[in-house]
Amino acid sequence: MEDRKEFDEIFRLYYSQLYFFARQFLMDTEDCQDIVSDAFEDVWLNFSSIRADAAKSFLYTDVKRKCIDRLRHLNTQRQYAEVCRKITECYDTDDGIREMEERERIIGQVIDDLQPPTTREIFVACYVDHKKYVSVAEEKGISVSTVKKHIVKALKAIRERNDKK
Amino acid sequence: MTDDALDIMEPEAEISDQMVEKLNCNTDLAEACRDIALAASSQRRKQEKVDVEARLNQFHRRHHKRQIIKLSIVGIMTAAAIFAGLLFILKYQNNTNQIFFNAEDLSETAMLTDIDGNEIPFKLSKNHGVEIKVGAKKDDASTDITDTLKMNMPFGKSCIIDLPDGSKVYLHPGSNMVYPTRFTGSLREVKLYGEAYFIIAHDKNHPFVVTTANSQTTVLGTEFDITSYHGQAEKVTLVTGSIKLHGQKCNREICLVPGQEASINEGGGINVTDIDTEPFTSWRDGYFYFDNVPLRDILQELGRYYNVSIDCNSSNLLNYRMRFIIKRDNDINYVVSMLNRMKKFNAILTDNKIEIR
Q1: What's the whole-number average pLDDT of chain B?
Q2: Which residue, of A116, B47, B88, B189, has the greatest Cβ tally within 10 A?
């Protein structure tokens, strides 16, 4: 197939972006891999009718739709699917996607630079390792409200950085 | 506000409807939640590695296999003819029924008329022969005259109406809407028969009111769908924001939150259920979206949209529940060929009629 080369290029360019996008909402790594592969399957089958420059937003929209579908089928709380729909609103346009990518990069730096490092550790334990605040508090031997204080501090640092921009 | 964000984003959090509503209304809260999600994502990238090359190889291996299976079953099907965004899941349900949908006389055209029934010419920008976009009649700056217009869409035609306040209305086939050339007074009022998807420009001082046979829906700025055909329960579905619905027969007023659908039955009773809004937003985005929908309903919608009659002699088929997603700008031949790819029945298109066997 002639398009194979172009397709592979798009795959390499966007695969991990889309994978981590899906991972924001789905805990299961295999689910995320399947969803992203399926989205590329849609692009592959539809290749003649998708312009190369439109592939990115097509993929994001597709992955987003599939994630929300998946959440609904997983019997997760309906409200959680709603939250995801709201949070992903800005991924509808190329500009929106680009803006979110840039924002993630900046926020990533802010989190890396947090002092003391405990704040970052707590943040990661809660949102990357998916632990409830109360279990993180137990592990660290601190109170739940202290855990929350650390997170609020991280959010404040992010906000300050965003405002500066 | 930050506390709310923490509550929403906590792993396995119990999120209440009120919280979802708050999130929908409060942009700062949504931003804070987004920040947490993005921050987590940035840290996740460091922990988890993705082997893109391995995934790419896997993709082509799997795809190659699928392709061979498809080719051997279907025979001659070129890759170009294979459409994506299209998935079928078939479930069988026991029941018997038949369907007839009769196409309208093809001579009927989309028509815009003023209050006296005089026809007003309007520009059609043809979009794949089926959809047309109608520009709002521009205000004549020199006059203050407000006309009332009626846009009538026969089966086989649909359009997007730009209202003078910047709102958009996606009018479905077999529907009509009465609206003014400009909104004056404290309310923005339109009348609807049939189905339409509304994206209403926000204006808290001028509520937007849609009147149908059985109800009045009042909004400030939001997205929602209304279906009101003869002989069918009237339905109001909210996608974002909030709306107030007044049922005329029961004289009752209810508020809907996003993802809810109010159904008004013959007796005037209102029933509210949670539903998937995807079919409605997909229509807005140019797709037919049927998920776990009986073939009967799918065919009826296709019949309305393309103005083709539907004829089905085999009784059980109509109750097959299936998933069928396809772009609306495809022509009817293509849609029928996609239906046939399920191999559950044979759909034959002849002279504006689809026969299902």
Answers
A1: 79
A2: B189
pLDDT of residue B92: 33
Q: Is the CB of residue B244 less than 8 Å from the CB of residue B217?
A: yes
Least confident residue range of A80-89, B57-66, B238-247: B57-66
**Same domain, yes or no: B276 and B294:** no
Tokens describing residue B222 = 């939001």
Beta carbons of B39 and A127 less than 8 Å apart: yes
For chain A positions 77-106, those within 8 Å of chain B (CB to CB) are 77-80, 82-83, 86-87, 89-90, 100, 103-105
**Chain A residues whose beta carbon lies within 8 Å of the beta carbon of residue B6:** 133, 148, 151-152
Alpha helix segments (H runs only) across B48-133 = 52-74
Query: Minimal CA–CA distance to B170: which of B39, B281, B292?
Result: B281
- Are B194 and B229 in contact by the 8 Å Cβ rule? The answer is yes
What is the value of ipTM here, to two decimals?
Answer: 0.93
Residue B117 DSSP one-character state: S
A76: its two tokens: 């997760």
Å between A52 CA and nearest CA of chain B = 16
pLDDT value at A72 more than 60: yes
Please identify which residue in the block is written with the tokens 């500066």: A164
Do both B273 and B290 map to the same domain? no
Instruction: Note whether A8 contacts B56, CB cutoff 8 Å.
Output: yes
Contact B180, B148 (CB under 8 A): yes
Domain count, chain B: 3
The most confident of B75-89, B122-136, B325-339, by mean pLDDT: B325-339
pLDDT at B84: 37
Q: Which of B177, B210, B292, B197 is nearest to B239 (CA)?
A: B197
| Strand B287-294 with B321-327, pairing | antiparallel
Helix locations, B112-198, DSSP H: none
DSSP-assigned letter for residue A47: G
In a domain, B299, yes or no: yes
pLDDT tens figures, B112-142: 777 777 777 665 554 433 344 454 444 444 4
pTM for the structure as a whole: 0.48
B49 and B169: one domain?
no
Name the phi and psi angles at B197, rounded to 5: -105, 125
Q: CA B123, CA B125: separation in Å to the nearest integer? A: 6
* B85 has pLDDT over 50: no
Is the domain of B233 the same as that of B263?
Answer: yes
- pLDDT score for B82: 37
Instruction: Name the amino acid, one letter, at B279.
Output: P
